[in-house]
């Protein structure tokens, strides 16, 4: 007995294939990690313009921000324009692949000192770094990516 393949069977096979692909995509997406960068995501979305203004103020400070790799630490130097001012500094290290490696460094310091971060608190890989600076009652913000390689 020979079965004929006609246009009706083609449509049925196409629909079955389509439903199968959609089901596969739903299954794969349900296995993905959906963690947020912040728990208070909605609060920060409302105050996003404040963060844009803070980032603009930080860029107005001028160049000079940078990470320098030392033997047992990473040194963060700040722009020269904030030198000799008393500042409060918060550095957030967010690990996109695993939130268990996220950590925060908080210091109150003089800008010429900079900040040293011990290497043993970092794991090899990419970090999203958020630097918050408070100087003279004003809030400054800088965000960047940093790839750490312990070699």
Features:
alpha+beta; 151 residues; Immunoglobulin-like; 7 strands; three-stranded antiparallel beta sheet
Strand content: 25-35%
Helix content: 25-40%
- The radius of gyration is 25 Å
Topology pattern, helix = H, strand = E: HHHEEEEEEE
Main β-sheet description: 4 strands, antiparallel
Number of strands: 7
Order the strands across the largest sheet as they lie in space: 4-3-6-7
Distance between the termini: 69 Å
- The secondary-structure class comes to alpha+beta
Name of the CATH homologous superfamily of the largest domain: Immunoglobulins
CATH architecture of the largest domain: Sandwich
Low-confidence stretches: none
What is the number of helical segments per DSSP (H or I, 4+ residues)?
Answer: 3
CATH topology of the largest domain: Immunoglobulin-like
Mean pLDDT: 83
How many structural domains in the coordinates?
2
Looking at the structure, what is the overall shape?
elongated
């Amino acid at each position: 007995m020979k079965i004929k393949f006609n246009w009706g069977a083609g449509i049925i096979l196409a629909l079955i294939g389509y439903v199968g692909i959609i089901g596969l995509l739903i299954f794969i997406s349900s296995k993905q990690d959906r963690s947020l960068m912040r728990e208070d995501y909605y609060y920060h979305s409302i105050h996003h313009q404040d963060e844009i203004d803070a980032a603009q103020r930080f860029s107005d400070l001028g160049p000079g921000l940078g990470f320098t790799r030392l033997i047992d630490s990473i040194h963060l130097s700040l722009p020269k324009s904030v030198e000799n001012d008393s500042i409060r500094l918060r550095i957030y290290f967010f690990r996109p692949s695993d939130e268990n490696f996220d950590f925060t460094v908080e210091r109150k310091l003089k800008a010429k000192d900079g900040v040293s971060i011990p290497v043993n608190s970092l794991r090899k890989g990419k970090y999203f770094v958020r630097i918050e600076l408070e100087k003279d009652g004003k809030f400054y913000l800088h965000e960047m990516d940093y790839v750490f390689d312990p070699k």
